[in-house]
Amino acid sequence: MEVKKIAVIGMGYVGLPLACLFARKYKVVGFDVNKKKIQKLLEGFDDTGTYTEKELQASFDQGLEVTSEEQALDACNVFIVAVPTPVDEHHRVDLKPLLGASEVVGRYLGKGDVVIYESTVYPGATEDDCVPVLERESGLKFNEDFFAGYSPERVNPGDKVHTVKTIVKITSGSTPETATFVDKLYSSVLENGTYKAPSIRVAEAAKIVENCQRDVNIAFMNEINRIFQAMDINTRDVLEAAATKWNFIKMEPGLVGGHCIGVDPYYLIQRAEDYSVDADLLSTARRVNERVGRYVADRVVNEVGRKAWKGGCNVLILGCTFKENCNDIRNSKVADIVAGLSEKGVCSVICDPYLDESEMDAFLSTVKMKPGKRVNALQVSPSEGSPYDAVILCVKHREFADLDVEKLLAPDGLLYDLKGFYRQKYGNKDFYREI
User: Fold this and answer.
1) Burial tier of 217 (Cβ tally within 10 Å: 0-12, 13-18, 19+)
2) I need a surface site. Which of 96, 97, 123, 425 has the fewest CB within 10 A?
3) CATH number of the domain enclosing 56
4) Domain boundary among 197, 212, 235
5) How many domains are there within the chain?
6) Residue 54 dihedral angles phi and psi, to the nearest 5°
7) What does the pLDDT profile of the chain (435 residues) look like in tens digits?
């Protein structure tokens, strides 16, 4: 099949880099229903922080179109869907963005066209949930008139090394011929090639297992960390000693947020329920990781002392994105720390150099607090409001490396380091704590 024009549906962390990459070789339309996002891109601003204005312009010069007008999809014969797959407040699967995107694509689907999904889903979602929508909207027959593929995204926000261009991509298709087409399409723009899975369901399962594995391993670290904290044993000292064994897998305890590891396991857990299988380990890992933020808040309040309970305690939060050196606040578990502190009457001052005012407001809107509790926000300077009774390093942004935390602390203040970021700098100080 000849590629006439590729449509990438969703201009976020996954779709935009993909559209820019394919635009180097093919005609590409980047589509998003969010008109403000498209307007920002046209003005040279990428709110994911992936591309500079100059880099975006280079993609536009190569022929990339970005639009929120559906009609632009009519000239396309390859559609790549890269929209979010979240869970709701009860941790139940929310396929509305994915099914909505499928409706849009279905309206412009023609005979011989191929639809490739990149969004992380449970095994079977592409063929069982999305394809029926495509058939209904287009009036075409699956695997006769149109075909499907699945190539799971592996985007790591803030990572300039493992980009979509340099990683190995899994590919798959609904027929052998489609699988070959999808594989060749991606191979034509990737530096390190592809891995062709035997079926769409295998490709879907592989992606979700990648993230479930990390969730389970981190949950183990978080559990032993709580045990060792109770025993007054430093967990990172233990891990460094254990890592001298040749087959020890070294990971660290911490907050598990973001749009992948903190979300995807729920997709597999729910799918397992459909097959009457109890995903006990995955469910337990999720519970362990979900409670880490409240554990941190409780420990800080208990150690800082009575001032917290009287509402006279000031705490500085360093970083509130879900990971370092990016502006991604999706499912950030720092919100749980802030909420936990607020419930005890603690005023949190939040500093994150990667967020502008609107992004900080968006983060604060995710914090569940009791009425009347105060939370302040600083984007750059952490000195306002000091001295602090406690400073909590939640995200190891590079901008925090040279910060003189000691000067920000009250005489009896404490530094809580969730990442071991300041271990070399303050590890021998009385005010230093690792969590």
Assistant:
1) middle
2) 96
3) 3.40.50.720
4) 197
5) 2
6) -65, -40
7) 899 999 999 999 999 999 999 999 999 999 999 999 999 999 999 988 889 999 999 999 999 999 999 999 999 999 999 999 999 989 999 999 999 999 999 999 999 999 999 999 999 999 999 999 999 999 999 999 999 999 999 887 776 778 888 899 999 999 999 999 999 999 999 999 999 999 999 999 999 999 999 999 999 999 999 999 999 999 999 999 999 999 999 899 999 998 889 999 999 999 999 999 999 999 999 999 999 999 999 999 988 876 666 667 889 999 999 999 999 999 999 999 999 998 888 888 999 999 988 888 899 888 877 655 667 777 767 777 678 999 999 999 999 999 999 999 998 899 999 999 999 999 999 999 998
In the set 20, 260, 313, 351, the catalytic residue is: 260
Q: Is 260 a catalytic residue?
A: yes
- Asked, for residue 223, whether it belongs to a domain, the answer is no
End of a domain among 197, 224, 258? 197
What is the C-alpha to C-alpha distance for residues 51 and 21, in angstroms, rounded to an integer? 12
Token pair in block for residue 146:
């149109």
Burial 410-431 (b: 16+ CB within 10 A, else e): beebbbbbbbbbbeebbeeeeb
Which domain range does residue 370 map to?
A: 294-435
Q: Please name the amino acid found at residue 55.
A: E
Enter the tokens of residue 278: 């109890």
